[in-house]
Design brief:
Number of helices: 4
Number of domains: 4
Distance between the termini: 66 Å
Radius of gyration: 30 Å
Strand content: 35-45%
Shape: globular
Structural class: mainly beta
CATH class of the largest domain: Mainly Beta
CATH architecture of the largest domain: 6 Propeller
CATH topology of the largest domain: Neuraminidase
Length: about 700
């Protein structure tokens, strides 16, 4: 068997390719395995999560048999429910180690028959830990596991269970952003002793990379192995032998094992690649330069945008700004070269322009449920729908850059906070003061609050009109201040009946006979425009915007007509729950999105400012003249080159380029008409950002 494995490894090593390349996949229908381990003879062991069995596979991943383990099969009900979450092979003692993730006990098992060797050992992790995956360092006598709840890799004494190591998970993003595979492997190389830990960030939505961590202190080695080639599925186990990596994947009604190349490159690629969209439509790239040349440089670096080279940089570069970045989804790649040898690519995908995520934070509380922007300061407030004590709920206060600066606590007798907005200069206090208005999903009431959390008067029940006889009752989902409806300034998104209702300070909608005021709005189900979650008034158009399924924001005009406006926010699908958008709030050209799906707040570009331009200077010659009229005409009739700054060609600033722009400019040039709207005659950014044009 050992010879067969060695032959397999030798044969594979000749075609292992780059790290992360797929060597093969084996599926096991109707199996639910939770970890995988190599044996010294090249065979493979896989741990059944709840069947009480350890499965033995050949080097070719053919199932050859099973052995029981001492924890047994999972009971159908608590209190005793052994859910086995980790498996390691102790080559020195020729036995297997099994982790019971429910009790944190480990047991040693004879691989010949499954008999227990010695007594159970209780591991002693920190409070609140959730252990999964096992890896054994025989030289240091350390048993490793992942504490995915606290974002740490823990090392234990396998004889006593005592905690020996607690290494925080590394990286630049907040710990809450990491998505772990419940697995790890211990690897000894000439470069040092490492732990291989699958992980992914919030935008990956899953563990899609193997991070290589120094076992001594948890520091990240500047090299990662991609896992995309392993295919779909949650990563439940990982094992490493030589240059081969086995990845255990949980899929619908099956478990799969993917074999990947683990070959390290001859020189390191860049690491810590970050791509950050900017408000003006440019994209800033930064990375760690791991070049091996003089001063830590490569020979050269190439920047690719969607597979096409856009820049060649010196080998010591660690940043690049793409000033010509298009709108939409972009994949950037940084490709190093050392001498004549091309290095491994590092890539990131993002959305640029409208819908781009400029920054984000994991919500520091339980579950974010409402968000609003203070009209006086521009600060952001967010409600937490998870009580901190009995019926005490927290409203958190952030700067416009999403730095938390404080919080206030609010008591609710029933229900939870849903919907948050500001009432500017509310006349119900003397002198008038801007108040917070907090909705309640159970009572359909609104509480008026000062910024220090004190209540102003009692809760106001909202008299939301009932639906049809078979419809569910109305339910407050989101709130927005809408001064365009007279005294009925509070707009309410009804989560159950998918409509917008307007009410006054007393909670009453307008009289049905008053046709001059909006009473309720049920947008037509066109354009996927059924109100889902979130409501706010757009500062650009003055219309109400509402959330729809799929992390999108749509608009209704004053007549309840759905407009063509569509903001696709680049919010990750999330791993907690289905709601990508729970609420949102505008501040200028920025929209803040509360996403329970990731329990995060995203700062998203709603209206790119674009680069400075002069309106009317369509050919960007620096002068506004008849040549610009010709440029627009040639563009309209497809006789000339494309206009790169379409905002400049929108001479009358009506949001589109057509013959009226040439007429407007001719009248101005010959002294009979007004000048073009701003920015004119000096360069500037577009003050009307809600159109579909850009510069």
């Amino acid at each position: 068997m050992k010879r067969a494995w060695l032959c397999l490894m030798v044969g594979a090593s000749m075609a292992l390719g780059a790290a992360g390349d797929l060597l093969g996949t084996k599926s096991f229908p109707n199996q639910r395995w939770s970890d995988v381990a190599f044996a010294p003879d090249g065979t493979v062991w896989a741990l059944g999560e709840a069947d009480g069995l350890i499965h033995h596979l050949s080097a070719a991943l053919e199932l050859t048999g099973t052995i029981p383990h001492p924890f047994g099969a999972a009971a159908p009900m608590p209190p005793f429910r052994p859910v086995c979450r980790g498996l390691a092979h102790d080559g020195a003692q020729s036995n297997l180690i099994v982790l019971n993730g429910s009790t944190f006990e480990i047991a040693r098992v004879n691989p010949a028959d499954g008999a227990q060797i010695g007594a159970y050992v209780l591991l002693q992790p920190p409070a609140g830990a959730a252990l999964a995956g096992l890896a054994f360092d025989a030289s240091g006598n350390v048993l490793w596991s992942v504490d995915s709840e606290n974002d740490r890799v823990l090392g234990f004494d396998p004889a006593t269970g005592a905690l020996l190591k607690s290494n925080p998970f590394p990286g630049d993003a907040p710990p809450e952003a990491y998505l772990h595979g419940t697995a790890l492997a211990y690897v000894t190389r000439t470069e040092g002793q490492f732990l291989y830990v699958p992980w992914g960030d919030i935008f990956a939505g899953r563990a899609d990379t193997v991070a290589i961590l120094n076992a001594a202190d948890g520091a990240a080695y500047p090299f990662e192995i991609p896992l995309a080639a392993a295919g779909a599925g949650a990563i439940r186990g990982i094992a490493v032998a030589g240059n081969s990596i086995l990845v255990l994947l949980s899929r619908t009604n099956e478990t799969a094992i993917a074999s990947l190349s683990g070959v390290w490159p001859s020189f390191l690629p860049v690491s810590n690649l970050a791509c950050r969209p900017q408000e003006n439509g440019t994209v800033e790239l930064t990375w760690r330069n791991n070049g091996a040349g003089p001063g830590g440089a490569y020979t050269e670096l190439s920047i690719l945008r969607n597979g096409a080279a856009v820049a060649q940089l010196g080998g010591g570069a660690a940043a690049y700004t793409d000033t010509a970045a298009p709108a939409g989804v972009i994949t950037y790649t940084v490709r190093p070269r050392q001498g004549l040898e091309r290095g491994l690519d590092r890539s990131r995908t993002l959305r640029n322009g409208r819908g781009a995520v400029l920054s984000w934070i994991p919500f520091p509380g339980g579950t974010v449920s409402g968000i609003a922007v203070d009209p006086d300061t521009g600060d952001v407030w967010a409600a937490d729908s998870k009580a901190i004590d009995a019926k005490l709920y927290r409203l958190r206060h952030f700067t416009p850059d999403l730095v938390q600066v404080g919080y206030v606590d609010v008591s609710l007798l029933s229900g939870a906070p849903y919907g948050l907005t500001f009432w500017p200069n509310a006349p119900i206090v003397d002198p008038p003061e801007t108040l917070l208005m907090l909705g309640n999903d159970a009572t359909n009431a609104v509480q008026k609050l000062r910024r220090n959390g004190t209540a102003v008067g009692g809760a106001v029940p909202l008299q939301l009109p009932a639906g049809g006889p078979n419809d569910p009752p109305p339910k407050v989902g989101s709130l927005a201040f809408d001064p365009g409806n007279g005294d009925h300034f509070l707009s309410v998104l009804d989560d159950n009946l998918h409509r917008i209702v307007w009410v006054d300070r007393y909670g009453f909608p307008p009289n049905p006979g008053n046709t001059e005021l909006r009473r309720l709005c049920t947008p037509a189900g066109l354009y996927q425009a059924t109100p889902h979650r979130g409501l706010d008034r757009c500062p650009q158009s003055g219309h109400l915007h509402f959330g729809v399924a799929g992390a999108a924001i749509r608009e209704v005009d004053s007549h309840c007509n759905v407009t063509t406006f569509d903001l696709q926010a680049y919010v990750p699908a999330g791993h907690r729950q289905a709601d990508q958008i729970r609420d949102f709030a505008y501040r200028g050209n920025i929209v803040y999105v509360a996403s329970p799906a990731n329990n995060a707040i995203f700062r998203i570009l709603a209206f790119p400012t674009g680069r400075p331009f002069v309106r009317g200077d369509a050919d960007e010659s620096g002068a506004v003249n008849v040549a610009d009229v010709v440029s627009v005409l040639m563009y309209l009739f497809e006789k000339g080159p494309d206009i790169t700054c379409k905002d400049a060609a929108d001479v009358n600033d009506d949001g589109r380029i057509d013959i009226s722009d040439t007429v407007y400019l001719l009248f101005y040039l010959f002294g009979e008409g007004p000048p073009p709207p701003a920015p004119f005659p000096e360069p500037g950014t577009d003050p009307t950002l809600a159109d579909e044009l850009s510069c």
